[in-house]
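Key result, reporting period 2: structure in, sequence out.
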C-alpha cells in the first residue's frame, strides 16, 4: 500500500514543528509508550475543575505519533473532560475505520488528516497513544485498553 497516503501535509507540519511542546511544572504527568513502533510520550496536563486548561508534551517517535500528540493537545486544550473523551471516541472511530461517517465528521477538524491510518492497522497505536495518555492523565481512562490495539 502507498505509505504516502498516511502523510498528509498537516501531519508532516506538526511532526516538524510540534505544538504545545514541553512540560508544565507541577502538573499531572503521564508517560505513554508504543513498543511496537518505539514511540514514547510524556504528557503534562493541567485540569481546573472540569476544564483542561493546559496540556503539553515531549517525546520521540514516528511522524504519526508526534503529529497526533501535537494535534491532540491543540484539539483538547480548553475543553472539558467530557468533550475531550467524546472527541477521542470520534477520533478512534476515524483511525480504526470503525465508522464510515468519521472521515466526513467536520467536528474532527484537521484531525481528519489521520483518516489514512485506518488502512494501516499497525499504525493505529501510533495515532492513539497520546490520546490514551491524555485519558489517563485526566482521570477518565480507567477501563482496559481496547483489544484491537493490543
Ligand atoms: Zn509510531
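The corresponding designed sequence is given below.
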Amino acid at each position: 500500500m502507498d505509505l504516502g497516503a498516511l502523510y498528509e501535509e498537516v501531519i508532516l507540519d506538526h511532526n516538524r514543528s510540534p505544538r504545545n511542546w514541553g512540560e508544565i511544572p507541577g502538573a499531572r504527568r503521564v508517560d505513554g509508550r508504543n513498543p511496537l513502533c518505539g514511540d514514547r510520550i510524556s504528557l503534562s496536563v493541567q485540569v481546573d475543575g472540569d476544564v483542561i486548561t493546559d496540556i503539553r508534551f515531549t517525546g520521540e517517535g514516528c511522524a504519526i505519533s508526534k503529529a497526533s500528540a501535537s494535534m491532540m493537545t491543540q484539539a483538547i486544550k480548553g475543553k472539558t473532560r467530557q468533550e475531550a473523551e467524546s472527541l477521542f471516541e470520534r477520533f478512534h472511530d476515524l483511525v480504526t475505520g470503525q465508522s464510515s461517517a468519521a472521515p466526513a465528521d467536520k467536528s474532527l477538524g484537521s484531525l481528519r488528516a489521520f483518516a489514512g491510518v485506518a488502512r494501516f492497522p499497525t499504525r493505529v497505536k501510533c495515532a492513539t497513544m497520546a490520546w490514551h495518555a491524555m485519558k489517563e492523565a485526566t482521570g477518565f481512562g480507567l477501563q482496559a485498553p481496547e483489544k484491537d490495539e493490543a
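The radius of gyration is 14 Å. The beta strands are 28-34, 39-48, 51-60. This case is discussed further under Risks and Mitigation.
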